[in-house]
Amino acid sequence: MSNNYSGLYTALVTPFNEDKSVDYRALEKLIDEQIQAKVDGLVILGTTGESPVINDIEAEKIISLAVKISKNTIKIIVGTGSNNTELAIKKSKQAQNLGANAILSVNPYYNKPPQEGLYRHFKQIADSIDIPVILYNIKGRTAVNLEIETLLRLSRHKNIIGVKEASGDLSQIMDVINQVDNDFFVLSGDDALTYPIMSLGGHGIVSVISNIFPREMKNIVWQCFTSNFEAAKQSHYKLYNLMKALLSISSNPIPVKTILAHMGKIKEEFRLPLCQLGGDDKQKLIKFYNEISG
């Protein structure tokens, strides 16, 4: 499997049955569809996969299933982040042992560590495993920003190969792209910023909307890679309203799972504290989807 982590990575949802158990049959179909759409990889057990409410046994089964189905045709990246460094290390070792290609490690949330604490947290995780580590900077969900100086220090670690940037701060993201080495991957963490970030030198996207439109997102990424930015811009604006709605109508992954249920791919089920959308919001969301799907 290549060490190139550029491209389109779908942040995959975790489907549930009516009794709130994991719907492994639906999950298998979702993974197969993503492979058929030729995405570059999947991020499983991330925020979009409702990782906070997945138990250890389920996590092991989900990782094993994804690795088995992918058969090394696409990369499997496992979200192993925690605000407890020892737990993050345990999860990261589990992902490696089960055959994951890489891990995604989010800023420790809630306890708001200083930059030196962030550095030591991520370094210890990277020291504990042999597979690549992609950092995940998302201040909006973690209350702490991975500052450029800290990221540059971490980028020198042999196992830390990239960052999923969801700070929403294009100025910071430009500084990252401009200052890291050429072999350090900068992935957008926000669908609506994929086009601008890639036009500024970014390497791809960890995408929510590609749960619904994987081929269309693959097209945008490919158009950017081939410097066909006018076509990429048109493709971007075709999906733009839905991109925004998926992250604004309600907390991710409520909107994307609502549409997948509307498409008949999964059941409209969540584990608390997430819950179903209200009627008006749901109709608005489906309207945006229908405008694209025709």
Relevant terms:
294 residues, alpha/beta, 8 strands, globular
What does this entry look like structurally?
The protein is an alpha/beta fold. Helices cover 47% and strands 13% of the residues. It contains twelve helices and eight strands. The chain has helices at 24-36, 56-70, 85-97, 115-128, 139-142, 148-155, 170-179, 194-199, 214-225, 229-248, 254-262, 279-293, and strands at 7-11, 41-44, 75-79, 102-106, 133-137, 160-165, 185-188, 204-207. The protein has an eight-stranded parallel barrel, surrounded by six helices. β6 (160-165), α7 and β7 (185-188) form a beta-alpha-beta unit. α3 runs parallel beside α4 and α11 packs across α12 (279-293). The protein is globular. The mean pLDDT is 96.
Brief characterization of the structure:
By secondary structure, the chain is of the alpha/beta class. 47% of the residues lie in helices and 13% in strands.
